[in-house]
Amino acid sequence: MTEDSKPPLTRIQQKNRDIILEAALTVFSTRGLRGATIDRIADAAGLSKPNVLYYFGSKDEIYRTLLTALLDTWLAPMLNIDSNGQPMDEVLGYVAAKLQLSRDYPRESRLFAYEVLQGAPHLEGILGGRLRDLVENTVAVLERWMAQGRLKPVEPHHLIFSIWALTQHYADFDVQVRAVLGPGHDPYAEAELYLENLFRQMLEP
Amino acid sequence: MTEDSKPPLTRIQQKNRDIILEAALTVFSTRGLRGATIDRIADAAGLSKPNVLYYFGSKDEIYRTLLTALLDTWLAPMLNIDSNGQPMDEVLGYVAAKLQLSRDYPRESRLFAYEVLQGAPHLEGILGGRLRDLVENTVAVLERWMAQGRLKPVEPHHLIFSIWALTQHYADFDVQVRAVLGPGHDPYAEAELYLENLFRQMLEP
DNA sequence: TGAAAACTTTACCAAACGGTCAGTTTGAGG
DNA sequence: CCTCAAACTGACCGTTTGGTAAAGTTTTCA
């Protein structure tokens, strides 16, 4: 009864599951869940369609696996905010970490964006549960810092939203950013400076 | 030769085209181009599938029609920035106008987000053409104001990006915003205050 | 080495999809 | 009221899609 029904993965399973998830991430993040086809994922993975379905029972299962794995990566920086650190350093560190996530994992950012755009049907209680709790904790820390006069007071929920919006924009709207800037720009490098200044101006007491 | 090949629309044509576009906007903005089906659009419009295709030759044509119409609405506020106005008022006015657009036309915002997420395949030269020119003009105005010391100097392209990111976030990530805030909040009302303060702090000389 | 387990493939569904067509109904103008 | 174009429909078609069945191949390990 208490068996975990988790047969250990063989070497081949491990490798092929990774290959499939890697390929699926690219496909899902450029076409969305409904726009992606198993054929395309199989193609990108260099496997046959039935072989892909040998490792994951359905397209949805691949998607859900990606989304679940993504969440931890995605929320990690917020957990890293140290309530005993210097407020300004902590906030700017969080902004920088989130921006780096957008730079290094743009596919994950876009996958998440697709999901939320749709109304987050696969994130059921998570947004209003785990995510909300995490935000509430951070909000409490921010409010303490503001009450102590170590940050200028602003609405902390919206401060968090603005960090998310500003950093993810560079991944999700990458095409637009690059088209508008034209060649010879490094959006992320410029954004790093811009955003540090922005939050400094807004929050430095 | 110079005939415009534009047969005038009958009353019924006008009405049904509008109904279809209205229904399609809802469907496209919640499922994306590929996730939407003509059947679903027809259903939402209360028309039969062949009848929908009587008014628009294909799904793509409906989509392109929506996207084109959307662009004008979308870019209008930027055209409204008055280079002879008070810099701070103009910038804050633009922010407020964009936020209102997100509040009043969230479906349009999400449709646009889907398109750009995909790499904007239907916006071919527009992002790097018309949009870029428009931004370049605005950037010039902003730079002048900054040079005159009427705004604190920041990188103007990224200032524009940040306005887009912050305002559209409330439409595109609506589900997340509401889930995190919990009930009893008016995200847009709060955002209005928050964003005004943000840009004031960042830009007021 | 040999047999079981793990892996892969070919061939194939049934459903959903974008779109067509032949013909019927509707309604505006004379 | 009649006529005819405009508006509409049901039946259909070829393709794509998610997924399965069954048989073949490779790997593992006793």
TrEMBL record, chains A, B:
InterPro entries in the cross-refs: Homeodomain-like_sf, HTH-type_TetR-like_transc_reg, HTH_TetR, Tet_transcr_reg_TetR-rel_C_sf, Tscrpt_reg_YcdC_C
Keywords, in A-Z order: DNA-binding
Statement: the UniProt record of this protein carries the keyword Glycoprotein: no
Pfam family, one: TetR_N
Residue ranges flagged as DNA-binding region: 37-56
Domain HTH tetR-type: 14-74
Coiled-coil region: none
DNA-binding as UniProt keyword: yes
PANTHER family: HTH-TYPE TRANSCRIPTIONAL REGULATOR RUTR (PTHR30055)
Record's protein name: TetR family transcriptional regulator C-terminal domain-containing protein
